[in-house]
Design goal:
Layout: H1 2-13, H2 16-24, H3 31-38, H4 40-62, H5 71-76, H6 79-118, H7 121-137, H8 140-144, H9 165-170, H10 174-180, H11 188-244, H12 247-250, H13 255-258, H14 274-287, H15 292-330
Length: 331
């Protein structure tokens, strides 16, 4: 798409000077076509620049390169950025579709006048006489009197939004136009038209590429989120299983450690439970995929708390055993 738009820009801009010289001989009636040629350079610069940016983003998104990994690169290749670029490409496609009507009109006007010029000076002279007759028919005196009698047909309302037919015909000097556009200089209008068709193709290809990459990135992000949820669920299950083996954290008695006894130990009410800690880690990981590291850090902290609780429980069990064994001696 970038190559097609670049070739289209070169083919159109390289012939813009010739086309502008042809339009100068047409007078003020060709004002919209002259505006088309004035905005030609800005139009293609913006389009080629946008396609270059889109090409770089697509390359960074599809190909993996360790040396280019950064937060800026991840933002530029995100699904949201790809969506905005696709919208801009479709806007430029609409602009080219709008300009297509002007290019077709430009090519049609120059092709018609070129055909008259190629018929020779005799036809050019008669065509100029026709132009003079049309001009005379628009005057007030000629409009009030007609040697041919009443007009045998009604009025017509067809017009063109791309060119002023009246201003073009009434001010046309056909002989001078033929001199200004000889040696094939009027063929530049065809190149401008072909360039417009080529840019329509390039923008359609770029929009399709961005749409496909956006869908691929969305599926890839979905798979990563599902994998993260699976790991978080496994982690929560392991933590539940580990904490179920600790009576202190569960609020049970110490009888399971050293046999039946009347001594009971209860966990401090302010200490968070295992399901609460695991639930917080899973919630953060699911809601924000980038928080996977935080979830893993939480799991490590919980595991360390489990080890410390196990060591504390062992010490307390030893102390309780010593207290129970020394009770008969005191009696």
């Amino acid at each position: 798409a970038l190559l097609v738009s670049s070739v289209a820009a070169y083919s159109a801009y390289s012939h813009s000077t010739e086309v502008q010289a042809c339009l100068t001989g047409l007078g003020p009636g060709a004002g919209p076509l002259q505006s088309l040629m004035v905005s030609l350079a800005v139009n293609y610069v913006l389009m080629v620049t946008l396609n270059a940016v889109c090409t770089v983003v697509l390359w960074l998104s599809f190909f993996h390169c360790e040396c280019l990994e950064s937060s800026f690169k991840h933002k530029m290749t995100s699904e949201r950025v790809l969506g905005w670029l696709m919208v801009l490409v479709w806007v430029t496609f609409g602009m080219q579709l709008f300009r297509l009507g002007f290019t077709l009109t430009l090519n049609g006007v120059l092709a018609s006048l070129g055909y008259i010029c190629n018929l020779g000076p005799g036809v050019v002279y008669l065509a100029q006489e026709l132009v003079y007759a049309i001009g005379n028919a628009t005057t007030t005196s000629s409009a009030s009197y007609s040697p041919y009698g009443a007009q045998p047909y009604g009025s017509h309302g067809a017009g063109s939004p791309y060119v002023d037919i009246g201003g073009l015909v009434l001010n046309l000097d056909i002989l001078q136009y033929c001199k200004n556009t000889d040696d094939g200089r009027d063929t530049g209008a065809s190149w401008v038209m072909y360039g417009c068709f080529a840019t329509l193709l390039s923008q359609a290809l770029m929009a399709a590429a961005l749409g496909a990459e956006k869908a691929r990135v969305a599926v890839h992000d979905l798979h990563e989120q599902q994998a993260l949820e699976g790991k978080a669920n496994d982690m929560m299950g392991q933590m539940h299983h580990a904490f179920e083996q600790l009576p202190l954290l569960g609020g049970g008695s110490m009888g399971g450690l050293f046999g039946p006894s009347s001594v009971h130990f209860h966990a401090a009410p302010s200490m968070p439970s295992a399901p609460y800690v695991a639930g917080k880690a899973v919630g953060a990981a699911v809601a924000h995929p980038d928080a996977a590291k935080a979830a893993l850090d939480t799991a490590v902290a919980v595991n360390q708390a489990k080890q410390r609780a196990t060591a504390s429980a062992s010490q307390m069990a030893a102390a309780a055993s010593k207290a129970v064994s020394s009770t008969p001696q005191a009696a």
